[in-house]
Design a protein that fits this description.
alpha/beta; elongated; 7-stranded mixed beta sheet; 19 strands; disordered C terminus; 18 helices; 6-stranded parallel beta sheet; Rossmann fold; single chain; 3 domains; 487 residues
C-alpha cells in the first residue's frame, strides 16, 4: 500500500496533508509513504524530518503519485496531477466540490475515488476526523489575533499611574466552533465579550466562557439539523437585524462566523452598521470565502471604510499552518485507519460504511455522491418522454406523475446531501432546477398525439348522441360534488 503526500499548488496555501508524526503512524499501518519534495516547507516541516520518520522524498509530484493507492491533499488537486496513480486510487482531502462540479467530474474521469473530508458526518465516531471543526477552531482563534493586530490599541483594561485604559469591546456573531474559540481567545486577551446566535442552546455555551449572550425576544430558537441553524423567517431576520444594529455601534471588534458549507454566507452586517461603528474599529469576516457576512467584505482583502477596518481572509487557519497541518493530518490519519485492514495491513474500503458513503464523491469513473450523481443523470427523462402516446386525459395524468417524480428526485437529493452536511442540500438543489423544464416537451407531444383521437371521437359522437352525452355529463357534474353531498 503506497501513500503519496503532495505539495499544495494553490497560492497562499501553506498547510500539508501529513506531518512527520502521522507519517510514522501511516507506516505502522503497513504503508509505504512518499512525500513530494518541499511539501511541508510552508508549515516549517523540512524534508529531513519526513525522511527521519521513514518517508521517501520524491523529487516531483509525478514520482510521488506513481503507483499510489492513496493520495493525501489539503486542497482539491487537478486531475492531471494524479496521472500514474493506481487504478481506483483514493484521493482524500478538502475537495470543495460545490461550484466546482466540472473539476469533480474530471477526477471521476481520471478513475480515482475522491473523498471530500468536509462532508464527514457530525457523529461521535467521526469527531476525530472532522476537518471543519479542527480548522474552524483555529480560524476562530486567529480571527481575534488578526483583529487585535489591526486594532492598534490594547484589549484588556489597564490601570496605570498615567490613568486607566478601558477594555476593548468584542462582539462575536455566531457561537459555533469558530465563534466559541473566538470568544474564549478574546476573553483571555482581556476584552469585554458579547455574542449572539440564533440557536437558543448556544446561550449556555457562550455564558460558560464568560461572555454575555444577547438574543432578540422575537426569535425563540432557530436550531436546524446537524448543528447548523435553520433559515430565519422575514420577521425573525428583521428582529435580529435590529438587535445587531443597536449593539454593533458600541463595539470595537466584531467577528462574524456564520458560514454553512455549500451555501452563500448570510448577510448579517450592512454598510450602515459598519458606518455606525467608531473609527479604528475592526471587523473580521470568517465567511469571506462564501461572499461574507458583511456587505462590504472583499475576499482575501483588508479594506478600510470610514475608519473601520474589514478583514476578509478566506483561509485564516492557513495563517497558522504548522498547527493547522498538525490537526488536519491527524483528521486524515483517523479516517485512513478505518479504511485499512489491521490484520492484512492492506487497503480494504467498506463502501457500506456511513463515513465512506457520506464522503465519497467519485468511484469507478462516476460521480457517486447524492448531491452530484443525480445532476449528471438529469438528461435521461427527456429521452424517454417523446415515446408517450396516450389520450389527452392520460397524458395529463402522466404529466402529473412526471411532476411528482421531479419532486421525489428533489426530496431524495436533499436527504442524500443531509447525510453528509446539511449545507450540501441548498447548494445541490439549485444545480438541478434547470432540468425541470425539459419534461414539458413530452407533455406537449402527448397532447399533440392525443388531438387526432379527440377529433375522431367528436366525429363518432352523433352515432350515440343521447346516451353517451348523458353518461358523460352525469359523472362530470357530480364527481366533484358527490363527496360534499355525502358529508
Amino acid at each position: 500500500m503506497k501513500i503519496a503526500i503532495l505539495r499544495e499548488r494553490l497560492a497562499g496555501e501553506l498547510r500539508v496533508a501529513a506531518t512527520p508524526e502521522t507519517v510514522g503512524k501511516l507506516k505502522a499501518l503497513g504503508a509505504e509513504v512518499h512525500v513530494e519534495a518541499g511539501a511541508g516547507e510552508g508549515s516549517r516541516l523540512p524534508d529531513a524530518q519526513y525522511a527521519e520518520a521513514g518517508a521517501t522524498i520524491a523529487a516531483s509530484a509525478e514520482a510521488a503519485v506513481k503507483g499510489a493507492d492513496i493520495v493525501l491533499v489539503v486542497r482539491r488537486p487537478e486531475a492531471a496531477l494524479l496521472k500514474g496513480a493506481a487504478k481506483g486510487a483514493l484521493v482524500i482531502g478538502a475537495l470543495d466540490p460545490f461550484g466546482n462540479e466540472a473539476d469533480v467530474a474530471a477526477l471521476a474521469k481520471a478513475g480515482v475515488s475522491a473523498f471530500a473530508m468536509e462532508f464527514m458526518p457530525r457523529i461521535t465516531r467521526a469527531q476525530v476526523m472532522d476537518i471543519l471543526s479542527s480548522q474552524a477552531n483555529l480560524a476562530g482563534y486567529q480571527a481575534v489575533i488578526e483583529a487585535s493586530a489591526a486594532f492598534d490599541r490594547a484589549l484588556p483594561m489597564m490601570m496605570t499611574a498615567a490613568g486607566t485604559v478601558r477594555p476593548a469591546k468584542a462582539f462575536v456573531m455566531g457561537a459555533g466552533v469558530a465563534g466559541l474559540q473566538a470568544i474564549a481567545t478574546a476573553k483571555r486577551l482581556g476584552a469585554v465579550v458579547s455574542a449572539t446566535d440564533v440557536r437558543a442552546a448556544a446561550g449556555e455555551q457562550v455564558e460558560s466562557l464568560g461572555a454575555k449572550f444577547i438574543m432578540t425576544d422575537a426569535l425563540k430558537d432557530a436550531s436546524g439539523e446537524g448543528g447548523y441553524a435553520r433559515e430565519l423567517t422575514a420577521d425573525e431576520q428583521a428582529a435580529q437585524a435590529a438587535l445587531v444594529a443597536s449593539h454593533i455601534a458600541k463595539q470595537d471588534i466584531v467577528i462574524t462566523t456564520a458560514l454553512i458549507p455549500g451555501r452563500p454566507a448570510p448577510r448579517l452586517v450592512t454598510k450602515a452598521m459598519v458606518e455606525s461603528m467608531a473609527p479604528g474599529s475592526v471587523i473580521v469576516d470568517l465567511a469571506a470565502e462564501r461572499g461574507g457576512n458583511v456587505e462590504l467584505t472583499r475576499p482575501d482583502e483588508t479594506i478600510v471604510h470610514e475608519g473601520v477596518t474589514i478583514i476578509g481572509f478566506t483561509n485564516l487557519a492557513g495563517r497558522i499552518p504548522t498547527t493547522a497541518s498538525q490537526l488536519y493530518a491527524r483528521n486524515l490519519l483517523a479516517f485512513i485507519e478505518t479504511l485499512v485492514d489491521k490484520e492484512t495491513r492492506a487497503l480494504a474500503v467498506n463502501w457500506d460504511d456511513d463515513l465512506v458513503k457520506a464522503t465519497a464523491l467519485t468511484r469507478d469513473g462516476a460521480m457517486v455522491h447524492p448531491a452530484f450523481a443525480k445532476t449528471a443523470a438529469t438528461p435521461a427523462p427527456a429521452k424517454k418522454a417523446p415515446a408517450q402516446k396516450a389520450p389527452a386525459k392520460k397524458a395529463s395524468t402522466k404529466a402529473g406523475n412526471a411532476g411528482k417524480a421531479q419532486a421525489a428526485k428533489a426530496s431524495v437529493k436533499s436527504e442524500g446531501s443531509a447525510s453528509a452536511k446539511p449545507a450540501a442540500v441548498a447548494k445541490a438543489a439549485p444545480a438541478k432546477t434547470g432540468a425541470a423544464s425539459k419534461p414539458a416537451a413530452p407533455k406537449a407531444a402527448a397532447a399533440r398525439s392525443a388531438a387526432p383521437k379527440a377529433a375522431a371521437s367528436k366525429a363518432a359522437a352523433p352515432a350515440n348522441a343521447s346516451k353517451p352525452k348523458a353518461a358523460a355529463r352525469k359523472p362530470a357534474a357530480r364527481k366533484p360534488a358527490a363527496p360534499k353531498e355525502g358529508k
